[in-house]
Specification:
By secondary structure, this protein is an alpha+beta fold. It is 25% helix and 31% strand.
Length: 233
């Protein structure tokens, strides 16, 4: 596993905010893990916009202030289109939280200090015009992610074998993906192709999605395994 020096700088910056009783910015799961290693449990609390939220904000005693926008797009777009349009604004990912699809509309959490810039510049997704509507930030507090149940038959629980089966390629090509840092395991860049998956492990494959390993369903007569996964939708 590895992480960038930029991560360490960002973690130190957020540690300093907590020491001054300020909340952090939005933290992705890797950043959360790194920050927890630097702090004692009594030094922070964790705010999640909804129970299964991927991004979180750490705080000391005052709940952080966040905003929630409904994104109305006059066209067929996907989650990655919304994300791409946000990154095209040249802002850090720490300024916004999860993008959620709920009851036919996309929503995004942002920090208040990003509000004016966001409203003035987030005008299109792909070539489709966008209408933004500020809604109650607690609207999605009971939202739960949707998953697709997936079962595969493989010879082992090694991650290279599993990934090869999911993306219908060879283990040699999987090693290339690992070399190119295209696979994350438990929010870290995967470096060990022979890692044996454990129940609860989460991994993502660039362009193929994110998966949670739920365990062995059964062994077959040919000594293979039927493995169960949840694919994030």
């Amino acid at each position: 596993m590895e992480f960038m020096k930029e991560n360490l700088y960002y973690i130190e910056k957020n540690c300093n905010r907590l020491r001054h009783h300020q909340s952090t910015f939005f933290l992705d799961p890797l950043e959360q893990d790194l920050l927890k290693r630097r702090l004692k449990k009594c030094e922070y609390q964790i705010f999640l916009p909804y129970p299964d939220s991927e991004k979180a904000i750490f705080y000391v005693d005052v709940l952080p202030d966040i905003l929630l926008y409904q994104i109305k797009v006059k066209g067929d777009v996907r989650h990655q289109d919304i994300l791409g349009s946000l990154f095209s604004l040249n802002i850090a990912s720490s300024m916004f939280g999860d993008i959620v699809f709920y009851q036919g509309h996309y929503y995004v959490y942002i920090l208040p200090l990003f509000q004016n810039y966001f409203e003035s510049n987030f005008l299109k997704v792909r070539n489709f015009p966008v209408e933004l509507q500020l809604v109650d930030s607690t609207l999605l507090q009971h939202y739960q992610r949707s998953y697709e149940s997936l079962e595969i038959i493989v010879s082992s629980q090694r991650i290279d074998t599993v990934v090869a089966s999911i993306v219908h390629t060879s283990r040699v090509m999987v090693k290339e993906k690992i070399k190119n840092k295209e696979i994350l395991l438990n929010h870290h860049i995967l470096t060990n192709s022979s890692y044996v998956l454990k129940e609860g492990d989460i991994f993502s494959i660039r362009k193929f999605g994110k998966f949670k390993y739920m365990g062995i369903v059964k062994e077959t007569k040919k000594e293979n395994y039927i493995l169960h996964f949840w694919k994030y939708l």
